[in-house]
Amino acid sequence: MAYRHIAVEPVTPTIGAVVHGVNLGDTLSDETFAEIHDAWMRHCVLFFRDQEMTPEQHLAFGRRFGPLHIHPAAPYAHGNPELMVIETNRDSKRNNGSGWHSDVSADEEPPLGTILHLHEVPPAGGDTLWASMYAAYDALSGSMQRLLTGLTALHAADYTGVYGDHPPQREFPQAVHPVIRTHPVTKRRALFVNSSFTRRIQELSVRESRALLEFLFEHVKHPAFQCRFQWEAGSVAMWDNRCTQHLAVWDYYPATRRGLRVTVQGDRPYFEDVQEDSGTQGRLRVAAAG
Ligand code: SIN
């Protein structure tokens, strides 16, 4: 896809693209913004290098996508809970986002997207991996797709002790969401369970739910659904939480990796029967083959 204001270089055919020719700290024209939005919907995760962007400009860019989301418990910068701090250093007991997840999926209205700007990166390591939940859905057999469609799952967050002494912003959320959701923009179907927040499939027995979730949590890890980004200081990644999951690798102890995250509020996930069953036709067949 050729654009007039940006250049977009896919990282894989399935997920991820590097965007050239734009600095997100600048006031973007409506046309440039629309092209970024279009590329985001196509590639699910966008990467930008060498971005000069103050926290205020980062907030302003995020607000173009909608009202900003406040994390239930994470520390924030400049007295503004919309500016989440991402930092892991030699004193850290844990790394944010070390398990596969879609951000705060336990919210009734989980965030639609997240924009992370890293200011300091380790000399090596600290990559983030994303997986396409469109691809994960498409790779399932038609029979499994039909079983999952119409099921709902409980998502619950428990941040006790996770952010040290930082007091939570609000009660820890929990919500029931469809296992397969329709993306409100692309109308594609995406698998919407993740091992960090999804606890139980409501319509199944405990044993059935455990077995099916275990399968799905393994399924989403297939490398064919993924891209991986090596950060530099000044890099920005923005991901669509409605159709991706991600995992941040902590392989750089005792180095520091830090930046700021702005997250955009989303809608309540829903399932709408608007897409013909794709089965595995013309799609990745990795799961069936594996
Ligand atoms: C997160 O889940 O927001 C953290 C992602 C990262 O640090 O790469």
User: What profile does the largest beta sheet have?
Assistant: 8 strands, mixed
Beta-strand content: 25-35%
Distance between the termini: 32 Å
Oligomer designation: single chain
Average pLDDT:
94
Number of strands: 16
Alpha carbon gyration radius: 18 Å
Short note summarizing the structure:
The chain is α+β, with helices and mostly antiparallel strands.
Explained architecture:
The protein is of the alpha+beta class. Helices cover 19% and strands 27% of the residues. The protein has six helices and 16 strands. The protein has helices at residues 30-43, 55-63, 133-138, 142-148, 206-219, 286-289, and strands spanning 7-10, 17-20, 45-48, 76-77, 80-88, 113-120, 128-132, 152-156, 174-178, 180-182, 189-191, 198-201, 226-229, 236-240, 244-248, 257-264. The strands form four sheets. Strands 1-2-3-14-6-16-5-4 form an eight-stranded mixed sheet, with helices on one face. A three-stranded antiparallel sheet has the order 13-7-15. A three-stranded antiparallel sheet has the order 9-8-12. The longest helix has 14 residues, at 30-43. The two termini are 32 Å apart. Mean pLDDT is 94; it is low at 279-290. Residues 86, 96-97, 114, 116, 128, 246, 248, 261 line the site of succinic acid (SIN).
